[in-house]
Give the backbone structure.
Amino acid sequence: MNERKIIEEKIFKLLTGIATYSLIAILGYIIAIIFINGFNSLSLDMITKTPSGGYYYGGEGGVLNAIVGSLYIALGATFIAIIIGVPAALFINVHLIRYKRTQNTIRYLLDALWGIPSIVYGAFGFAFMLYLGMNASLLAGIITVALLITPIIIRTFDEVLSTIPKGLHEASLAMGSTKTETAFKVLFRQGFSGFITAVLLGFGRGIGDAASVLFTAGYTDLIPKYLDEPAATLPLAIFFQLTSPIPEVRERAYAAAAILTIIILIISLSARLLSRNYSKSNIK
Amino acid sequence: MNAQNLQLMDTQTANLQSLQMKKQPSILQIKDLNVYAEKQHILKNISLNIPKNKITVLLGPSGCGKTTLLKSLNKLTDLYRELRVSGQIFIEEDDILKTNTNAPLIRQKMGLLSQKPFPLPVSIYKNVAYGIKLKGVKNKDLIDYNVEKKLREVGLWDEVKDRLHKSADSLSIGQQQRLCLARGLAVKPRIILADEPTSALDPVSSKIIENLFRELKKHYTIILVTHILRQAQRLADNVVFMHYGEIIEQGSPEKLFKTPKSVQLREYLVEGN
Ligand SMILES: Nc1ncnc2c1ncn2[C@@H]1O[C@H](COP(=O)(O)OP(=O)(O)OP(=O)(O)O)[C@@H](O)[C@H]1O
Ligand SMILES: [Mg+2]
């Protein structure tokens, strides 16, 4: 290596290092700000109690209603999205393997759906809800969020499935497995870490999105018991409290944001562990 | 006796052998097989009988269509839209290429061993059990019994019996190749299609696979693609030489290797040695 290349190498290493570490620093900074601002309000009450009458003026209570509502909506929507998304992603990669152009068209459409802002999904969900004669409810929220995250789950899983070596696919078929067996027993297995990533991305987007649930899920201080009841969500809880003139309430908005962050961290961590366990036998 | 005479005798025995070859019952009959890609005629009017319980070796320079021929046999060409296949391939009266044939059923009659082993992303045990289950076996004891039997058949049992439930990915490449063979045998095929199965292996593992093939040919018909001429000489009962998508010559290894008729084969043999 000559002098110049050594210097180039050093500069490049420095630049990439700066980019990477500053990203981590920014993430840390965001989380720190949220926790610092919400620290005083982070109490057991926040996660175990629903708002009391005077909650929004600084009174007693917590955001249990929003925690539960958000979990219900995100879990329900993720569930629906998995049921639709997993077969769809497998179909694209197994049954459409001969049809490259169809594959690409579908991928393009899904990418477009992914890119549509969630407020548009919210508006669509709202119109759809009225059309069906439903009220703002848990169910309407779940359906809207499911629409929002299904393309995310399909495309993320699909991206991983499409990198599976063709030899493995052929090996499975050559043994005489059907396409269905190849899809569910071989490709799904091999792409399991991609499945987990897909579910995580979808769930994270679903639990954190405010615009899609704004008109469809409504808001309530109660914990919903049935699908046709409205449901509170954490993003909206943050939104409402952050716009309050009362400092204690604003502080609680940060506490709610911290709770949302913690939920996402817990779920992504456990999913990673799960996926690591399952990818042990993956073919590299 | 002079050298010419000797050669003559060689040719005679070779002719005799090729005559016997023709009388042998065949398990696969390929008739006028053509495979086209968008801009290329990959296989040209291939007609070929594969004798039962023999090793047929496909030889030919890189790109001549050996892999494509194997893939046509078990319908893996279906995976490629750009490939058009025409002609007939009979396996026990059934035409494989008819569009309404049951592809999984046809494929179960042939085990494929590819250049690079692709174990399934599950444990060693489950790799073989998967093949057994494909045949509809559900009884756990029967599966256990057969997993062991197949692993013994490929000489892998002693090496893996203590780690059956470990990932197949943890095996060496040579072991993975034998695992893939065991998995293929578990489906009870009639024919083994082997596409350069030893090209990724060390000499010792290659030897193991070769010996296995000699053993297996008692019960299975083997079609082997190889670039190793010595391997072809050691194993072949019947050699098929291909060049640019055509079959140029075929017959017993003695005949083809000692007295190649075509220029192409002569050149190939010179370069290969
Ligand atoms: N899906 C495809 N689309 C277009 N052309 C193809 C396709 N598959 C194979 N071919 C072409 O067909 C020819 C034969 O390929 P094939 O893989 O059968 O050769 P081969 O004899 O197995 O060679 P090698 O010894 O290098 O493995 C090559 O020229 C290849 O480029
Ligand atoms: Mg090949």
